[in-house]
């Protein structure tokens, strides 16, 4: 039986991490209903909406309700006037969700006792010394790469820098993706390879065709919308798996490419990959490899008449229509790599920079 009816957890969740998850799960297990209130400041560089979304996804299907509330009031634990200002923001956040009474406040901070007293609620301290999960928002913001495994899964998906290399056949997309992966793996040892799944699928499909008919040739293969649906979903999953393990993703193609190849092999009327396109992950930058200056190489798996110039234009059109950021990379291998790394370095630096208001406190864990 639950000890309490309505419980409350408050925090910045900037970003939400394993310690927050432990606190919320411990509180939810002791309450009939738990309200988690994200108090976000305009001076913080992760939006309130994203923090609410990530926590809601983490606790989907549970008794946890996540509420976002802007709170730009300065922090001064010694001022009753400031306490009142914060309490009123919290009270209204709860009131707007129909919560007018609080039975318990759960926290890992000393301020929780004062907050609980102001609301006439019990205070339950959870892992004050951070022994169960030695992580804090401060640690995550100081070194997101080192703390990556402690950031909750939904947040990792959105916080990862995603760089997608796309292009028509034989335009050195794989060459550039491999060069970028090798370059950044020095700083990101967990950086995963995200290859073009469609190529492996082609190998497997042709092997199955030859098993059925030893005289089968590549041009005899019949492609279906179901093939491209499977390729698209698997490409998305490979990319998301890479984001789960590392804050940087370099992918050799994505589901946009799958959809364009479906257009080439089946025609405009085929929509097998459309669901995967609808579920395309958030990404930061596309690098389109230019067909000009790269001679076509027939490796036995490509069609000599593949419309490289037309497909390069399709990529530009599709990504522009989607509102995506893209760069056409041209020139030698060295020039392409230099163009790519210059912008990627800036994107990484921006993603790893967290702003805070001047009154924000830093959580220092024992032994850190």
Description of the molecule:
With 368 residues, this protein is of the alpha/beta class. It folds into 2 domains: 4-144, Rossmann fold (3-Layer(aba) Sandwich); 154-351, P-loop containing nucleotide triphosphate hydrolases (Rossmann fold, 3-Layer(aba) Sandwich), CATH 3.40.50.300. It has helices at 18-28, 48-58, 80-95, 111-118, 137-142, 153-159, 173-184, 197-212, 225-245, 255-265, 274-278, 308-321, 333-351; strands spanning 4-11, 31-40, 64-70, 104-107, 122-125, 161-166, 248-252, 285-289, 326-329. The strands form 2 sheets. Strands 3-2-1-4-5 form a 5-stranded parallel β-sheet, sandwiched between helices. Helix 2 (48-58) links the parallel strand 2 and strand 3 (64-70). The longest helix has 21 residues, at 225-245. It is elongated and about 80 Å long. The mean pLDDT is 92.
């Amino acid at each position: 039986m639950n000890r309490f009816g309505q419980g409350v957890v408050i925090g910045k969740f900037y970003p939400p991490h394993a310690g927050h998850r432990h606190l919320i799960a411990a509180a939810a297990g002791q309450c009939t209903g738990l309200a988690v209130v994200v108090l976000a400041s305009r001076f913080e560089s992760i939006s309130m909406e994203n923090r609410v979304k990530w926590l809601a996804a983490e606790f989907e299907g549970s008794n946890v309700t996540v509420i976002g509330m802007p709170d730009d009031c300065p922090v001064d634990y010694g001022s009753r006037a400031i306490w009142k200002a914060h309490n009123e923001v919290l009270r209204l956040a709860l009131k707007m969700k129909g919560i007018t009474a609080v039975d318990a406040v759960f926290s890992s901070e000393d301020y929780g006792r004062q907050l609980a007293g102001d609301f006439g609620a019990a205070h339950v301290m959870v892992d004050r010394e951070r022994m169960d999960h030695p992580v804090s928002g401060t640690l995550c913001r100081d070194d997101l790469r080192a703390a990556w495994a402690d950031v909750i899964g939904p947040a990792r998906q959105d916080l990862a820098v995603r760089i997608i290399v796309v292009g028509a056949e034989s335009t050195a997309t794989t060459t550039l993706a491999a060069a970028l992966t090798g370059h950044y793996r020095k700083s990101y040892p967990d950086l995963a390879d995200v290859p073009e799944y469609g190529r492996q699928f082609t190998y497997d499909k042709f092997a199955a065709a030859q098993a059925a008919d030893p005289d089968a040739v590549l041009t005899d293969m019949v492609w279906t919308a179901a093939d491209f649906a499977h390729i698209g979903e698997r490409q998305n999953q490979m990319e998301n798996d890479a984001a789960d393990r590392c804050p940087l993703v370099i992918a050799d193609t994505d589901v946009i490419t799958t959809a364009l190849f479906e257009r080439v092999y089946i025609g405009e009327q085929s929509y097998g990959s459309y669901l995967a396109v609808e579920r395309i992950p958030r990404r930061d930058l596309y690098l389109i490899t230019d067909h000009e200056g790269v001679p076509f190489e027939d490796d036995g798996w490509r069609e000599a008449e593949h419309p490289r110039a037309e497909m390069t234009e399709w990529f530009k059109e599709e990504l522009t229509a989607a509102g995506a950021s893209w760069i056409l990379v041209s020139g030698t291998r060295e020039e392409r790599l230099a163009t790519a790394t210059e912008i990627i370095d800036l994107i990484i630096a921006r993603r790893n920079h967290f702003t805070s208001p001047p009154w924000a406190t830093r959580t220092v864990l024992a032994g850190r």
